[in-house]
Write a structure and sequence with these properties.
- The protein contains ten helices and nine strands.
- The protein is an alpha+beta fold.
- The strands form three sheets. Strands 1-2-3-5-4 form a five-stranded antiparallel sheet, covered by helices on one side. Strands 6-9 form a two-stranded antiparallel sheet.
- It is globular.
- It starts with 8 loop residues before the first helix and ends in a 9-residue tail after the last helix.
- It binds adenosine-5'-diphosphate and ligand LJ64HWYM.
- The site of ligand LJ64HWYM has 12 residues, from helix 9.
- It catalyses: L-homoserine + ATP = O-phospho-L-homoserine + ADP + H(+).
- InterPro entries: Aminoglycoside_PTrfase, Homoserine_kinase_II, Kinase-like_dom_sf, Pseudomonas-type_ThrB.
- Pathway: Amino-acid biosynthesis; L-threonine biosynthesis; L-threonine from L-aspartate: step 4/5.
- This is Homoserine kinase.
Length: 324
């Protein structure tokens, strides 16, 4: 459950009075998600999503995020569209938080990832990267390699209570990742959080899953394109027992490469990019695990799920471990 900021019926009606979205019919806090407070809105003109941005979103960066979403949609990607109020502004404030209303996307995110999801996801990622070209404003990755040592430092006090020896292991892993981190790979606008809960599917006429929408662009940034693929390999290609599903990985990478072939340098860097992607999500989960305020309506995610991924990638000798 991720609702950090509660809104009253009266506050919401006052907020909506600035929009031409009709009358409020119903609204409800959305159980899913981790970072922000999301509400499903139904008005007399349709369904919308109201997001109140919380701690990890810098308000000064919201114009970049919303501008990227507009650009991607204008270039054919199915992603939420910010809705402007009558004064032309989409970014506003509600209950003391930055807030925006976006269009509601059809589809369901896969609670159980099947191989049939991974090819369409790989193609959708490549389409996202292609649609992002031409959006020239850059946003540095605030959770990139430069952030991992400071984030680990903020986890030192509580880390070993999660698992004895965890901090020492992460110190060693991080040193190896940073030493091997690539310097010069193709860059562009990346999603940087394309987990299953941020990808909607509908079945096509033949019953096969097709991507119907991508959401949650609030970690998007300008970084290595192949790093976005690494994030997806971690999020989509490990089984519940934490085994790596090479068939899913091969399907995802093949579909991605059918639209944007990876360079030799990207292929060679894939294991360390996957290690870094695992480290990034392990650290944010570990921080949240030890810092989430009591009573916050959020389902914390287990950092140790990413320790197993980190160990897999550390042991991967080359791209053959990924089905290539
Ligand atoms: N544009 C949208 N259309 C339909 N459902 C959405 C949309 N945006 C968010 N949701 C719903 O809200 C949930 C949480 O959204 P998400 O952006 O993942 O939260 P967070 O901002 O915490 O990362 C999603 O899993 C989905 O169920
Ligand atoms: N995807 C991250 C947590 C952020 O989740 P979101 O719902 O805010 O996109 C993770 O799994 O650690």
């Amino acid at each position: 459950m991720a609702v950090y900021t509660e809104i009253s019926d009266e506050a919401l009606r006052a907020y909506l009075s600035d929009y031409s979205l009709g009358e409020l019919v119903a609204f409800r806090g959305i159980a899913e998600g981790v970072e922000n407070s999301n509400y499903a809105l139904k008005t007399t003109t349709g369904d919308y999503i109201l997001t109140l941005y919380e701690k990890r979103v810098d308000p000064a960066e919201l114009p970049w995020f919303l501008g990227l979403m507009r650009h991607l949609a204008a270039h054919g990607l199915s992603c939420p569209q910010p809705v402007a109020a009558r004064d032309g502004e989409a970014l506003r404030e509600l209950c003391g938080r930055p807030a925006a209303i976006c269009t509601f996307l059809p589809g369901v995110w896969p609670r159980r990832v099947r191989q049939g999801h991974c090819g369409p996801l790989g193609a959708a990622l490549a389409e996202l990267h292609a649609a992002g070209t031409g959006f020239t404003a850059e946003r540095p990755n605030s959770l990139g390699p430069q952030s991992w040592a400071p984030l680990l430092d903020r986890c030192r006090a509580g880390g070993d209570a999660v698992q004895p020896g965890l901090i020492a292991e992460l110190d060693g892993q991080l040193e190896g990742i940073l030493r091997a981190w690539p310097r010069d790979l193709p860059r562009g606008q990346i999603h940087a959080d394309l987990f299953p809960d941020n990808v909607f599917f509908l079945d096509d006429a033949g019953g096969a899953p097709r991507v119907s929408g991508l959401i949650d662009f609030y970690f998007a940034c300008t970084d290595f394109l192949a790093y976005d693929l690494a994030i997806c390999l971690n999020a989509w290609c490990f089984e519940p027992d934490f085994s790596f599903n090479i068939t899913k990985a091969r399907a995802m990478i093949h579909a991605y490469q059918s639209l944007r072939p990876l360079t030799e340098a990207e292929l060679a860097a894939l294991p360390v990019l996957c290690r870094g992607a695992a480290m990034r999500f392990l650290l944010t989960r570990l921080f949240d695990w030890t810092h989430t305020p009591a009573g916050a309506m959020v389902t914390r995610k287990d950092p140790l799920e990413y320790l197993k991924r980190l160990r897999f990638h550390a042991a991967a000798q080359d791209i053959h471990a990924y089905g290539l």
